[in-house]
Write a structure and sequence with these properties.
Blueprint lengths: L5 H15 L4 H48 L1
Length: about 70
Amino acid sequence: MNFFSPWHLLLVVLVALLLFGPSKLPELGRGFGRMFREFKDATNGLVSDEQNQAAPARKEVNTNSSVEEEARK
């Protein structure tokens, strides 16, 4: 199901142009661009934090398993 067609996008742009005027639209576009960039940076930061926290736990598991293997020998 396709909810949005090119006509819907054209209608939204036309309504935005009527509400805000041609002088405010570039400012709104820059504001949305900054918002999306900050959101992307924040989500990338969260992902890298989770990976950094998970990496030491994996090392501990590997260290413990190698110690157990040495004890068996």
